[in-house]
Records
---
Amino acid sequence: MENMPQEFWRWKEYNWHAPDIAWRNAKIITAGVDVGSVSTQAVVMVDGKLFAYANRRTGSSSPDSARRAMDCALEETDLALDKIHYVVGTGYGRVNVPFAHKTMTEIACHARGANFLYGASVRTVLDMGGQDCKAIKIDAQGKVVNFLMNDKCAAGTGRGLEVIADLLQVPIEEMGELSLRVEKEPEPVSSTCVVFAKSEALGLLRKGWKKNDVLAAYSRAMAHRVAALLKRIGIEKEFVITGGIAKNSGIVTRLEKELGIVARKPDFDTQIAGAVGAALIAKKMKDER
Amino acid sequence: MSERRYKKLKTAPQLKKLLEQHYLAAKYFHLGKPIAWVTSGAPVEIVRALDIFPVYPENYGALCGARGASAAMCQVAEARVYSPDLCAYARSSVGMMSDAKHAPLGGLPRPDLLITCGNICGTVLKWYEAAARHYHAPLFILDTPFIHADDGEPTAHAIAYVAAQLEELIAFLEKQTRRKLSKEKLLATAMLSSEAVSLWCDVREFCRARPSPLNAPDLFLNMAPIVTLRGTKECAQFYRALKEEIAERVARQVSALPEEKYRLVWDNIAIWHHLYRFYNHFVDYGACFVTDTYTGGWAMRMNDQGDPIHAFARTYTQVFLNQSLRVRVRDMADLITRFDVDGFVMHSNRSCKPYSVGQYDIRRIVTEQTGKPGLVIEADHSDPRSYDDETIRARIQTFMEGLR
Amino acid sequence: MITAGIDSGIKTTKVVILNDDKIIAQRLVLTGWEPQQAGESALTAALADARLSRADLARLVATGAGRQAFPLAQSNVTEITADARALAFLHPTVRTVIDVGAEEARALKCANGRVLDFAVNEKCAAGAGIFLETMARTLEVTLDEMSALALQATGTATLNSQCAVFAESEVVSLIHAQTPIAEIVRAAHDAIAGRVASLARRVGGEPEIALVGGIARNVGFIDALARELGMEIIVPRDPEFIGALGAALMAGDPVSLRGAS
Amino acid sequence: MKNKIGYLCTYVPEEIIHAAGFLPVRIAPSTTPPTRADAHLQSYTCCLARSCLDQALAGRLNDLAGVVFAHTCDTMQGLADIWRESFPNLFVETVVGPVALNSPHAQKYLVAELRRFVAALEQHFDVRVTEDALRASIRIYNTRRRALADFYARRAEFSAVQWFNVMNKALTTPPEAISDRRSATSNQQSAIENQKSKIGVVLVGATIDEPTLPQILDDLGARIVADDFCNGARYFDTLVAEEGDPIEAIAARELTRATCPCKHRALDDRAERLLKLVKDNRADGVIFYHKKFCDPHAWDYPPLAAALDREKIPHLLLEVEQVAPVGQTRVRVEAFLEMLSEG
Ligand SMILES: Nc1ncnc2c1ncn2[C@@H]1O[C@H](COP(=O)(O)OP(=O)(O)O)[C@@H](O)[C@H]1O
Ligand SMILES: Nc1ncnc2c1ncn2[C@@H]1O[C@H](COP(=O)(O)OP(=O)(O)O)[C@@H](O)[C@H]1O
Ligand code: SF4
Ligand code: SF4
Ligand code: SF4
């Protein structure tokens, strides 16, 4: 009775590496591991350049998740963990990264990562992750000037979206697109509570709504909550979004519309920003020592 | 918003005009009179007698709720780091102060003076402090100590304290307006105020008739002038007309509802943002709210013995929200017997803690005393974001199933 | 007279068929996304079990979250009213009924089949079946195993999050702290028992107390609730069918339906 | 006879209760989630109210001869009445002090209200509260306040958790037990090693009742350099005059001590005080530690935050229920400290 025929929330895990970087002559090799509540990323940088990374689901044990992600990142390279000079752990499980030399919060790491990935003109970073959303203001060096996090409610988080993906039986990767395919933008749902999502969605479907409309109504409600967070901190250009939900076009589009500001679109995986930041901070720490 | 499904009042256009004129005048035609923001429980007679033009942010809050503007206004405040858990009247008002783009009628006029009276809640102190900071307007706080006594009587020292502050208020207003308060004018205003209040009491009493000539939304809407125009000629005039109409309804046994099968009492502030939709769920069962604790809150008759300042002090300290749970139980039980009802519905109002904290106990005790069942519904008087029609309907259905 | 009750829950749909006051068939199916269809199929199956056809049905009453979705039902009542009616039939001495479904928990005070008072978990209390289901998923155990595990624990772990989703991550940190699984399970049961008990207290719950709804299959929960309330708890046979039974009983007694819509 | 009387807010005059022969103890919320209070209080009331009532309903406060409230916020006002209904035989009183502390009539009113409270105690317990007893109690409590202030002046030697323990123990033990700094910190060893790298923060809020935040601050190597809690520095910042009429003196203290947001003395006195705390103690930032659903503090947050912003003092808002969730709180605090140390 409990088994779903398919796990719709499951997004793909993968790894990547730069084919043409010779790490053997490098001055410094650093890594960042972001053990999030939902996903874990490991990023390896060689002299401050992206060398390899992996993106995996976080399991029930943080140390294992960290190890698995790192192994996965290094899998197709000939680099071994013991050749990495300095590792910084971040994310919810940051203190549980067994091979990390230091830890840093994901707030500092996303700030630094966004600064590196999008450039020094970024001033506002929105990290939409598995368990919370963070609105971060940063300076030209990628340092945190101010930040805000959402309240202790799972509504409007990545985990919440996964629950809804399962509920409506739509693959999470397609959720955003599907939610945009509506004739008319519906009213946002009255409560985005994940726990009560099913009764809410059932009620709507019973009223003759289509799945797309329900998705749209959810995405809109979520965008609304996140927009409130951003308005609270006061949004400044340039604005970028990191974290897994940045891949959900349904939420991003609605958020942009509500804020009247367009987020810079990345040409890389938004989920790795935190780990990239961690690897950069690792480099800085190593340099300073 | 859904339509009302029960009889319209002939005086409705008159009411509409009266209120429109009030807000228009506040905005454009106050003719150089200073504008004071006052709380619903402030001794407005003194303000009027000094030719100051009072406006009521709370009433305006209700208007914003009814017009569906509250949520947007609240969001402005929330973006300015006000917590979404604060009273939505106050929150929307704070939103309006910094940005009036969502505010109906272009927002309230800027206050020259602020007068807050704590007899309804602690929120109004903080709200008016925020206004004072924003507008740099002088703030007068009338501190009316809460009454925990079972008999609802304030202590002698509380009355003396309030009376002393009233004298201070007069001095403060005289200084601000550079006018002298005329005792005659104060008495005349108090008389007009008394008259309207007493007519309003009569209107409410008419609803003891079976079938009731009015349903709760009528009471809510028709209460507005008592709050905003108390002490004016127009106000008394309106209630005379209203009383006449209701008297006639009662004489001809005209019912507010198509068919009155159940009679209920309402507790707490109206659910402004879904006024008809919400109350229609009861109309579906033929259930009429024949009376309520909220609009009765302004049916206090002025205590006219002795010195008027003392009478004011006593009356304004004794308003129902400044009274203990025991007094609220007593009043509720009294309504239940006098209006011969089948049950009561309590709106647990997230916005309004003084009105809502204690409701569970009030409900239990009142049911024990009267045998009448009570339903608690959680919502908010003006922020629609915590209103969920589906759940609320299920609660109402269960309650009505039990009333048979 | 043949009557039927259909309880269209968030998670499961239940049908009970009565011949006068005798249960002659009952069926449970997953509600899925088409409550109406689920209801149809449960009803068809139950009728088949009883070797009856639609035409034999004198009356049908619906209850549950999807109660308004059945055109074939003559009327509908809420689960709370239906529970009271069923308990009066099964255990007339019961004064308080606690009904915990997938997403909603309710407590009601009753006498002679009438609801005297009731309370439902407010949005966000998350004190319902889904809370345990989420925990089960995180712990990678089945609901049945959960229930058994809870009884083995002795410990003192507590969960503080109200939100089911966040309680999940609390559970993860408890796992990291090497808290034995049984203890975590017990903490999860205690957490929702506490919330459910406060509902019962809100209606002034008096003995005897009955627990119904799907969660009453869970002995770990019954134990937690009994401990929290300090009272014995009656669990009727087939606790998840109580709502449907109540509806079926009300179908046979049209007077009781006055006022229902 | 039971000899303790519980109270819920520091505006309750401890000296009077003490002079009547009782030990006044602050009722503090516990860390167990409430299960009984929800039958009386809505989910949108603060956890302080809910947890305190819950403990009483669970029978954990049965050793109290009475419970005294002070008029502060709307929730407390309702709670006092609920308490009275739940325990009809208990002595439950509210001292309805003035809200407008700047009113020229507030002192006179408060004195009368305190005398009413004295009379209520005397009548209910059949005791006499003499002027001499009041004077003696005032002296004892002043001694304790001075001892705490003295401890405070040396708090750099102690960790945040120790600070928390000292303050919370003080308000539930007999006042005579704390007469100087040493007795205030008995069982607390000085334990500060790597002092120099520490970031200093000022904490602001209603009360602090469980040590998650202090523990996190210790773990992360931050220091509490000042606070603005009811059960922190606001408790001892003003003494009662030992001369003159004792009731008048007690009233005078209530009107002059650092204000809580339920009271009004001047429009911006809280902001001014906060800025002074930050500057005098050279704090790096401010952490607002607020209870969810606490209206008065939520109302004061925007103006206080604005005042800090104007001075470019970083601040962080934590909104907690009964127990601060360790993970979430830690990320916020850690990120905040990272921000302060980078800056
Ligand atoms: N390919 C994808 N398309 C859409 N959404 C995705 C995709 N991958 C991940 N997500 C969303 O991102 C969330 C995870 O975000 P992430 O930033 O990795 O969280 P955390 O770092 O807190 O673990 C998932 O819960 C899911 O909602
Ligand atoms: N065998 C079982 N053990 C423990 N819990 C169970 C079991 N079967 C069902 N449940 C619980 O019952 C809940 C469903 O209850 P049910 O009354 O059928 O819900 P609804 O009527 O809302 O659909 C599930 O969420 C689950 O937690
Ligand atoms: S808290 Fe209640 S009484 Fe006070 S302003 Fe808001 S609605 Fe009015
Ligand atoms: S249960 Fe729902 S509303 Fe409550 S905190 Fe969790 S997601 Fe939010
Ligand atoms: S002041 Fe705040 S914390 Fe204190 S009782 Fe009131 S609401 Fe609760």
---
Amino acid sequence: MAETKTRKKKSSGAKNGGALEKHGIGEELALDLLRDMLLYRRFEEKAEEAYAIGKIGGFCHLHIGQEAGAAGCIRPLREDDYVITAYREHTQAIAKGVDANAVMAELYGRVDGPSRGKGGSMHIYGADVRFMGGHGIVGGQVPLAAGIAWKIKYKEEDGVVVCFMGDAAVNQGGFHEALNMAAIWKLPAIFVVENNHYGMGTAFSRVSATPVAERAISYGIESCSVNGQDVLETYAAFRDMAEEVRNGGGPRFVDLQTYRFRGHSMSDPVSGTYRSTDEVEERKKKDDPISILRDTLFDAGLLDQAGLEEMDAEARRIASEAADFADASAHPDPEELFHHVWAEENHGRLFFDGRDR
Amino acid sequence: MAETKTRKKKSSGAKNGGALEKHGIGEELALDLLRDMLLYRRFEEKAEEAYAIGKIGGFCHLHIGQEAGAAGCIRPLREDDYVITAYREHTQAIAKGVDANAVMAELYGRVDGPSRGKGGSMHIYGADVRFMGGHGIVGGQVPLAAGIAWKIKYKEEDGVVVCFMGDAAVNQGGFHEALNMAAIWKLPAIFVVENNHYGMGTAFSRVSATPVAERAISYGIESCSVNGQDVLETYAAFRDMAEEVRNGGGPRFVDLQTYRFRGHSMSDPVSGTYRSTDEVEERKKKDDPISILRDTLFDAGLLDQAGLEEMDAEARRIASEAADFADASAHPDPEELFHHVWAEENHGRLFFDGRDR
Amino acid sequence: MAVMTYREALNQALSEEMERDPDVFLMGEEVAEYDGAYKVSKGLLEKFGDQRVVDSPISELGFAGLGVGAAMAGLRPVIEFMTFNFAFLAIDQVINSAAKMYYMSAGQFPMPIVFRGPTGAALQLSAQHSQACETYYSHAPGCKVVTPGTPADAKGLLKAAIRDNDPVAFMEGELLYNMKGEVPDDDDFIIPLGVADLKREGGDVSIITHGKMIHVALQAAQKLEKDGIEADVLDLRTIRPLDMDAILETVKKTNRVVYLEEGWPYAGTGAQITAMIQEEAFDHLDAPILRVTQADVPMPYAKGLEAIAKPSADRVVKACNRVLYR
Amino acid sequence: MAVMTYREALNQALSEEMERDPDVFLMGEEVAEYDGAYKVSKGLLEKFGDQRVVDSPISELGFAGLGVGAAMAGLRPVIEFMTFNFAFLAIDQVINSAAKMYYMSAGQFPMPIVFRGPTGAALQLSAQHSQACETYYSHAPGCKVVTPGTPADAKGLLKAAIRDNDPVAFMEGELLYNMKGEVPDDDDFIIPLGVADLKREGGDVSIITHGKMIHVALQAAQKLEKDGIEADVLDLRTIRPLDMDAILETVKKTNRVVYLEEGWPYAGTGAQITAMIQEEAFDHLDAPILRVTQADVPMPYAKGLEAIAKPSADRVVKACNRVLYR
Ligand SMILES: Cc1ncc(C[n+]2csc(CCOP(=O)(O)OP(=O)(O)O)c2C)c(N)n1
Ligand SMILES: Cc1ncc(C[n+]2csc(CCOP(=O)(O)OP(=O)(O)O)c2C)c(N)n1
Ligand SMILES: [Mg+2]
Ligand SMILES: [Mg+2]
């Protein structure tokens, strides 16, 4: 995260002091949100290290820079609420209650991962904590979210489902079909576009004639834009929205403005023809959700450097513990290859690969 | 078509007399539009007869009641403009220049049909007159239209493509993907929803929270609603729109308000739980595009009963001639079964059904 | 035993399973107010209300995905495709979500969902409405494929499919809906998935098939009988899981096999069965296994062309004679 | 002969064909400014401009359909799928529009379009990014399927595919892009579709395969050689059209066949080839034809599991030994 500038602290003191009140967020909660984001940051930095030395393979999409989209959106939810998302989901899994050690074990492809190493970075699930994955087909999770919301309504529960997607996902037909169904059936779903302005190397402005926020108008779904780098604003927005949706307010659509500090995946460059290094550095300096909250708490006198360092040490400890846990976890046995293909055996043959060969 | 009411004639004289001027439509053109619609009506009534006696099989979707959506939308186009549509396309094929005899022959499944009887009612094509079919997957033609418009732009031509679809097609994801691409690339396409308010037995209001006209807002595409039972209004709207699109105005979206006088297809009931007989009879009386234009021309003194009957006789003549032509046309030879699967033979085998068996 | 149509048998199966389990619901185009495009869901809206019998927009990808999400959350959706021809739009959700979810989550999310509707050709519906789609679903591990050919099989198998905890592509036939047959009255009449049915006992040659082709196979068997040839007619009923024991039994009895299917040959079901038989009963084969399939062309509209494009009893007879070297 | 990577060979083919015919254009995700997710289109934007090298939104169904419409209107689109795993979203336009249009219009609309991208598994991309998709395209008449395994084949076949007037599913391999090989310099170097290539001459057993598995087959042949067994290795190169003559030739020479493929077994390419061989060369087979395929499971992420899920040279060797009764 970027260094604090003393000048900034002074000048913005009053304003920042008021930020908590403005959003109706208490001190402990604010500190927890910082703890959350620090953990996510350190956790994924660990994953980066592990990837670099080949402990993690395949695609690995980091949320670094977008952590408020995990802490701010998910902390306000209830345990019985659902979350579903795409492949940039490590932090959101942890936020919904999947154990950090287990998430790291999944990245390592080990049996202590929620999918016993079969899913990997893009397919983290936590059925017990209602974290519904972890999906790799862009936009694929959006109709699923409608189905989860359908179940909530069908069972006359008062939960909500929060469905995350990237900005590029709004160009998928399934997104539209799902939003239309959510609208006609007033499903309790919050569709959140984590709008980091790029789909891989393509700026959203090049693949849409209108801003993200306008993409739900056609369905009459209430939309709003939220500053996804300000975790307090994000938290407040989701706290209030979840309440309204819970009480039958119907679906919502959120343009969560954010920015990706890393490359699209570990194998992609941070910057290139599609965005300049300056742009990235600028945003990292100005728009780091952790620095922003840190400064707010400093200015409000709720946190000092020592306290921050303590917190950060704790985050680093959990992250490296997770890496150690993952590394110590066993590789799946060969026979696990054939487990979990079928939930139910029937009479007759289900596998056709001639095991003897 | 419904009987004229003398009272109506008198009272509406002035207004109707002005209708042509208002839309900048000359007398001959107005009469031609009536001729067009009469032909379409009589042609499809013939098809109905032929279907009843088993000369036509499969699905057969009639345009009866919606004829202004053929005459009014297509007559203003140039020969080098393109038209693509769904499966309710008999009249639109004729409007774009496919010979009525050939269309009927296709319905009969005979070799003188544009597809030599292989396509049938849902797949009429006229490559030579740039009628691009004739498509059976709801919404499937919409991305194709974007591709045709892409070609126009790619070749720096000044044509346009008019893409028809039903109201239910706007709930297909492909519709959204296509409109978004048309918007970002400013493609010369006019997307027309023939909004007859029902998709088979489902009222649009049951599968959409918003009116058809709002379904293009998300893409920033200019939209308008047109009274599709008033062929003069329809003609004027498309004449002007085509000019604007031709001159680089980018894509347009049209909610063409109309009504289906028949069942969804020949095998479906005209009315039922989804719409009452009264509703249908009411609309037939009030909203028959042929009666409406007829009355306008009567009131303006541009047509009298005798002239109308003459026109109608001519339409009936062409329709029954088409039926005779179709009936006289040969059934495709068995070996035609294997023609037109592949445009290009290569080395090696392309067919795998063991012809000898 | 009551005599009823294939349509009524499906309707009963749906109704009984919805009675039995409140988590079962039916969603698809025209299934509610219109009673289904082919009236399979007749009366269900009235009986179960619009939360359990749901008219969807024409959004195959969307409502198939909605079903998958609902199944993840614990419901047991029955998703109707008006025909499987339209399911090409939805297949990403069937293969990439439904069929793979249980594996990707290492068993956290069973997928008790049925995708049902007609497959294959009816009469003169042309190329985009006449395709037999089995291969697109049977190819992928994680997806079961059921193809009932009679009213009794339709009822017993649909009930089994709805109770199964894996995704099932349940493929019916437009031309079967009006077909009548005897169906056991028992409310709990279930035909387990993966059990083939020897619909005719012969001994000279084996005609193996699935789905609506069973009736063509039986016609062919009758014609052969006139020539003094007795054919086994084996109806697989489900093509994944597959009753390989039943297949090998008839093959070892007759040593001659013809596979009959409605769809195209290339990488069709018959190709798979043929490859397995020659591998597992190589020494029992007195002749090559022949396949009778749809002509390898998109389905034409013209009545005469369509008729010769479809597999016929005569072509089956010819193939049987060939494997009998007659 | 120049030595270049498979990636460069594809890039050259695209560049040369775009030079040759102004109606050829490339559209897909990240193909322009990003030079392609796998850099296959590197430099083409600069060379041909943004009307001919076009970054699309993530709208597979939409831009595949756009390509089909453009082809109807006379252009020759090359549509890139970042991988065929994502093309499940677009398959309706490939099968129902592209593959059937020429037939439904009785020849009015040829469909000169290429859908290209990698198929099958790379390294640890898990179930939704590792599927081999050949069957979904080869099953349907009207669609050609090309699967080059070497740089030379990639270049010669892509040029042929672009010049072909039928829709072609051109299936590459992520793990092949960096592979080097000799490629003829000739600007007009074309490998006609439907011509198999005997990549190794043996005589004891025939290993028939396609796509990236050709390299596994050759490894297996080397291992067998150590045991004194000489294998024919036949690379089909295109699976539709199919060089049946070449297949029958090697079968009649060795009388023993193993089909190796990257994908799943059920109704896979190997099933089709096996069914055809046993039908057309029944008396030439001294052993059943065995298939070596991906394990019949969704692809797992864990390195160790993925390794054993993929077909290996050892499994091919084992299968060869079995058909040789050793
Ligand atoms: C249907 C589909 N098409 C393409 C891809 C390849 N792909 C993976 S992520 C991605 C970009 C998505 O960008 P966005 O939705 O903005 O999410 P972000 O990565 O920015 O979080 C693409 C093209 C895919 N996984 N699925
Ligand atoms: C993808 C797809 N789903 C379902 C169908 C079956 N079907 C044919 S027409 C139709 C209704 C379409 O209604 P609309 O778009 O309003 O056009 P209209 O028939 O009213 O002209 C349906 C459901 C189909 N052909 N394609
Ligand atoms: Mg993005
Ligand atoms: Mg309609």
